[in-house]
Amino acid sequence: MTEKKARKFHIETYGCQMNFSDSEIVASILKAEGFEACQDLLEADIVLLNTCSIREHAEERIRKRLHYFRSLKRKNPGLTIGLLGCMAERTKIALMEEEQLLDIIAGPDSYRHLPGLLEQAGSGQKAIDTILSADETYADIQPVKIDSNGVSAYISIMRGCENFCSYCVVPYARGQERSRDPESVIREAKDLFLQGFREVTLLGQNVNSYQWKAGKETMDFPGLLERIALLDRKLRVRFATSHPKDLGDEVINMIAKYPNICKAIHLPVQSGSNAVLDKMNRKYTREEYLGRIRAIRNSIPGCAISTDIITGFCDETEEDHQQTLELMREAAFDSAFTFKYSERPQTIAQEQYDDNVPAEVKERRLREIISLQQELSSASNHRDLGETFEVLIEGESKRSDKQYFGRNSQNKVVVFPKTAQKPGEYVKVSIKRATSATLIGEAC
Ligand code: SAH
Ligand code: SF4
Ligand code: F3S
């Protein structure tokens, strides 16, 4: 008797860390049902695209990729193609009608149904499931690591978002905010440590509002951070993302208390103008934001602060833009992700405001923001010259097999000549040179 050959799946992931973490959940669900993961797209029987809708450009990239898949399907008509994630959720059946090559559409809360959806697609029927859930957290599913460096891993601690920033698709693509059972998070962190991982990043759109309640038991974010930090001194803990309105003193104090909670906070500001922040529905002012920065600087010496900035939001004036540049200088961000505003269907901004900043103005403002951030990042890295940091080795440097690269607690990339230590071990490195992106040093 010949054994039935397992069908092979290949997942491509776009978008944020949460999506990468979700792809690991998908891989786990499919493996448990007897499917086999494969790295090579051309060997796959099933190709899954885990997609992002955050900006128009993100969706354009995915549509381009679908064009390529059309040629693959022509060569291999038995190929099953599935669209997962935020774009699947946002566009639902419309995209399936438009892109006839799609066999499956599954939103972020439908991954447990994938084996059934694949079976349906296998019998020639199109399969779609984009129902969002109020309580799905995939807590019991042990993610299967894909493309892992074996040193650092993501752990999702919550899903969804209810902040409804007026420009943002996430609340529509990911649904209600819900927190995951803390015991399952702690178990996952412990398992990862036993497997050799030395850094976990706790993920959520707004981790500071993490809240678990079961009977009399409750757990908030500072409590969860502490439990993970106490697992082992050699396990580093990071988290993303913090919303400025929810980053309280308790979290700041918890970061200060434990050396293995990394001294790096990602605190997206989006704009330095109160008028724009109000229109964005961010629920804090420029002054409140800068107050949080001062609290961090006072309580956690040497803490790195990074941010996200959107330029060219509806009605943004030159004066508003100058206020963003001023705030960047005052906050002295160590790094920043910067974006031109991209209007998204169904959002509050699309429905109520005019996307009225001309493209060339958005571009010029973005250039000014990027150039200022380069100065700030370079200044931040030059302040580290002569300092010694504990670096967690992640692997060989891309530029030279004689060098390692790793990160310090501040999440800065550090490159240095190889030592006897291996990836996953810590080494003290003294910083000799710096660029705006990298610290270069020697082990000491
Ligand atoms: N939950 C996180 C970030 C999620 S999305 C937070 O609240 O900060 C990551 C970043 O994408 C956002 O911080 C924002 O800067 C950017 N972004 C979101 N929607 C956007 C849009 N419509 N146009 C341009 N950038 C956007
Ligand atoms: Fe989007 Fe705002 Fe939620 Fe972040 S907090 S995911 S920007 S709605
Ligand atoms: Fe994109 Fe969805 Fe993440 S829209 S940024 S993949 S939550």
Topology at a glance:
Elements: E1 8-13, H1 17-32, E2 36-37, E3 46-51, H2 56-75, E4 80-84, H3 85-98, E5 104-106, H4 114-122, E6 127-129, E7 152-156, E8 158-159, H5 170-174, E9 178-179, H6 182-194, E10 199-203, E11 211-214, E12 217-220, H7 221-229, E13 236-240, H8 249-257, E14 264-266, H9 274-279, H10 286-299, E15 304-311, H11 318-331, E16 335-340, H12 348-352, H13 359-383, E17 388-396, E18 403-407, E19 413-417, E20 426-434, E21 438-443
Parallel strand pairs: 1-2, 1-3, 3-4, 4-5, 5-6, 7-10, 10-13, 14-15, 15-16, 19-21
Antiparallel strand pairs: 8-9, 11-12, 17-18, 17-20, 18-19, 20-21
Helix pairs in contact: 7-8, 11-13
List keywords for this structure.
six-stranded parallel sheet, 13 helices, about 35% helix, OB fold (Dihydrolipoamide Acetyltransferase, E2P), alpha/beta, binds FE3-S4 cluster, binds iron/sulfur cluster, binds S-adenosyl-L-homocysteine, globular, Transcription Regulator spoIIAA, five-stranded mixed barrel, about 450 residues, Rossmann fold
Short overview:
Helix content is 36%, strand content 23%. With 444 residues, it is α/β, with parallel strands linked by helices.
What would your notes on this structure say?
This protein has 444 residues and is α/β, with parallel strands linked by helices. Among the domains are: 8-129, Rossmann fold, CATH 3.40.50; 298-382, Transcription Regulator spoIIAA, CATH 3.30.750; 388-443, OB fold (Dihydrolipoamide Acetyltransferase, E2P) (Beta Barrel). Helices cover 36% and strands 23% of the residues. It contains 13 helices and 21 strands. It has helices at 17-32, 56-75, 85-98, 114-122, 170-174, 182-194, 221-229, 249-257, 274-279, 286-299, 318-331, 348-352, 359-383, and strands at residues 8-13, 36-37, 46-51, 80-84, 104-106, 127-129, 152-156, 158-159, 178-179, 199-203, 211-214, 217-220, 236-240, 264-266, 304-311, 335-340, 388-396, 403-407, 413-417, 426-434, 438-443. Strands 2-1-3-4-5-6 form a six-stranded parallel beta sheet, with helices on both faces. The longest helix has 25 residues, at 359-383. It is globular, with a radius of gyration of 23 Å. The N and C termini lie far apart (62 Å). The model has no long low-confidence stretch (mean pLDDT 96). Bound molecules: S-adenosyl-L-homocysteine (SAH), iron/sulfur cluster (SF4) and FE3-S4 cluster (F3S). The site of FE3-S4 cluster has 13 residues, from helix 1, helix 3 and helix 5.
